[in-house]
Specification:
Blueprint: H1 11-33, H2 37-58, H3 63-78, H4 92-121, H5 135-143, H6 147-161, H7 165-176, H8 181-198, H9 201-212, E1 226-232, E2 236-238, E3 244-246, H10 248-264, E4 268-271, H11 282-289, E5 303-306, H12 312-326, E6 330-333, H13 340-349, E7 353-356, H14 379-400
Length: 413
């Protein structure tokens, strides 16, 4: 489409241009290094023909995108010494056109991604006449968007930044740079090694251990001045009939917290709201499933439910309120090992003292590979590494947004 400043490029034309440019790039290189004179003339004719096609497609491109190609991409790359194709060096006079062709190919791909991203990010109200076009205007509009839009963008961002997307991006970039064999082999080899390494269960266990040691362990024999056992939930899901069920991680945490509460006589606090707008809160779902609440039994005064928290920061704020009501600041955190570091940092940030009690690892079936299983890549190993790296990204996000500071990550702080 060609229109005002808010018009998106015709994606089909841009894809066609990108394909033609890559074809021209390949034919150009073959024309320069083909030893047979007849084939070289044929390749040169192909370059001439594809050049006309490129200009025909480019004639329908948006003027703004053309300016961006020249200013942002073409000018810096045109002066860069382009490497030889197939091991041969081109003449100095031929480097500039080749570099410009490469720059336009790169810009075309970047333009497609940017325009699609703009379309995805647009949150203008229908009929309002407001359709923010620039990245910055769209970001500002998203800040005022409904919570559902923000959650969708957050989920997409998490998907793009967590495994296996970064590895796939490295592989794709390595294929795009295939003519630059050095960089291509580095990217493809690095992506392969990263995939294999992160799929090893031993690596996943090591990553989880670093996160689980972010808080001192709770000694059941000497509870000290602890006033409550805090269990943050870990999600729920709906069945085909609309019923809500806790996730396996939520059940493991709550069962461990319940057993610890029986041994120490400390009140059990389940904290979990509806972060995605579920019809039932996570805390209520877990308590109902474990028989802590129900119409056929009286309320247990030793079980406290907090159903307003939607993330770790809000969970910490709710835990502080409950701890102050109970007359102390020391709480026992019962959560998954990978979640200890981020949750404990949020609790320390609001002034609480934290001890951690990890649920006992669930029994796994007998491994047919025996002692070799922890050293061989597996889907379970990749899932463990993904969960650990997701927590590291979450800690970074909380640091950037000011929910925690570096001092909160220290176990003794």
């Amino acid at each position: 489409e060609v229109g005002d400043g808010c018009s998106a490029l015709d994606v089909a034309d841009m894809i066609l241009e990108l394909r033609v440019l890559f074809a021209r790039y390949f034919d150009h290189g073959r024309a320069e290094v083909e030893p047979d004179a007849a084939l070289r003339r044929q390749r040169c004719q192909a370059v001439t023909n594809t050049a006309a096609q490129v200009e025909h497609v480019r004639a329908f491109r948006h003027e703004e995108a053309q300016i961006a190609v020249v200013v942002v991409v073409e000018i810096p790359i045109a002066g860069y010494p382009t490497g030889a194709l197939a091991g041969h060096r081109l003449g100095q006079g031929e480097r500039l056109p080749l570099a410009r062709a490469k720059a336009r190919a790169f810009a075309a791909g970047l333009g497609i991604f940017t325009r699609l991203s703009h379309t995805w990010q647009c949150v203008g109200e229908p009929g309002s006449g407001q359709d923010p076009c620039t990245i910055w205007e769209r970001a500002a509009a998203c800040n005022a968007a409904p919570r559902e839009k923000k959650l969708e963008m957050r989920e997409v961002t998490e998907t793009l930044l967590t495994l296996p997307m970064p590895i796939l991006a490295m592989l794709l970039l390595g294929l795009v740079l295939w003519l630059h064999r050095g960089w291509s082999l580095v990217l493809i080899g690095g992506a392969t090694l990263a995939f294999l390494g992160l799929s090893v269960p031993l690596v996943a266990t090591w990553l989880e251990t670093q996160l689980g040691e972010a808080a001192p362990s709770f000694d059941v024999a000497t509870p000290g001045d602890a006033v409550a056992i805090v269990v943050p939930t870990a999600g729920i899901f709906a069945d085909s009939q609309g019923g809500w069920w806790p996730s396996s991680a939520s059940i493991r945490r709550a069962v461990a917290g319940q057993a610890l509460a029986e041994r120490t006589s400390l009140p059990l606090v389940l904290i979990g709201g509806s972060p995605l707008g579920e019809a039932e809160t996570e805390a209520v779902s877990v308590a109902r499933q474990l028989g802590m609440i129900g119409s056929d039994r009286p309320d247990d005064p030793t079980v406290l439910l907090e159903s307003g928290a939607r993330n770790s920061a809000e969970t910490a704020a709710a835990a502080r309120t409950i701890a102050e009501r109970l007359g102390g600041t020391h709480i026992v955190l019962v959560t998954s090992p990978v979640h200890v570091a981020r949750m404990a940092a949020n609790l320390r940030h609001v002034g609480l003292t934290v001890s951690a009690h990890a649920p006992a690892p669930h029994a796994s079936p007998q491994q047919p590979l025996g002692v070799l299983a922890p050293y061989l890549p597996s889907a379970a190993g990749l899932a463990g590494s993904r969960a650990a790296l997701h927590e590291y990204l979450g800690i970074l996000w909380y640091l950037i947004n000011g929910h925690i500071v570096m001092a909160d990550l220290e176990p003794g702080s």
